[in-house]
Amino acid sequence: MTGEPTRRPVRRAMAGLTRPDRPMADLAGANISRPAMDKHRFAVGLTVFRPDRSLFDTLLETVRGQAGHVFVVVDGPSGEAIEAEHLDVLRDTQNVTVLALLANAGIAAGLNRLAEAAGTAGFERILFFDQDSTVDPSLPARLSSALDRLAERGEPVAAVGARPVAAAGSDTRAPRYRPRGEPVAGLSAVEFAIVSGLMVDLKAFRAIGPFAETLRMDGVDLEWCFRAWSRGYAIFVDPEAVLEHRVGTGVVRLGPLAFPRQREDRMLNYVRSQAICLRLAHVPLRWKMRTLLYVPVQCAVFALRSPRPVRTLSRLVRAAMKGLLITLSRPLLP
């Protein structure tokens, strides 16, 4: 390590990054710390929308002392995306900068604001977490060390992720990763990794491009990882870095198939995003075939278990058609 990266004054560096509820009020008092070891090399980024306060506050307290700085995007106005009192507490928390958006823009937009904030402030890496993740205090340093090992070997790497497991008592299902090639330095190369627990190299991020805001919420990390591979950057997972993960409100099972139980609005966005991914050249054919087989079954089961099956199925079909017909632009296109 050759010393600390250059820091720009926070007020000037962040100006124009977002449209906060109180312009610059969140940023003026932010002091980016310069802790020991390699913590100053990475920031932590959290997106917030109607968080479970207990889970979120535990997460924040865990990561706040492990990173050079914590950036929090509140994805919507006070009172809708977060309780006003909770927002005030976050604004007064040391080593935390809050970026409050005026309207709900989706996870992809929030992730892009976080990456921009971290890069503008001089950090080399950013570690993302979902607002309800349960994180071991050693996880951030472990992932940063993994990126260091890959860099020493000359690996062109975009990100290293944790291995997600279902949170205890959550009745959810963690994703399983398909290996891609042989392990390197004790790390598994994978096709994609979920964004929670993903430490992203910001130099690679700028080369790959931002998260696709057209997708809003679902498939955002999947598409970005496939795009990274298509541009020569690898995605790795540290199998020993375990992250407790929650998704949806349970599991829907149909024989050997199992998928998260989602709200209808999230299911509609998911179907639309999967339809968009069918059109992308950098998404592997194998994944597209899986989508064509898996998503229709998922939609049928979701509709049958809804109070109004015909109406729900009709809405899901329309969401798929929107994804197939929407005009695409960068970064989804080369």
TrEMBL record:
Q: Which GO terms describe its molecular function?
A: glycosyltransferase activity
Organism expressing this protein natively: Fulvimarina endophytica
Q: Which family does it belong to?
A: Belongs to the glycosyltransferase 2 family.
**Record keywords, A-Z:** Glycosyltransferase, Transferase
* Protein name, entry field: Glycosyltransferase
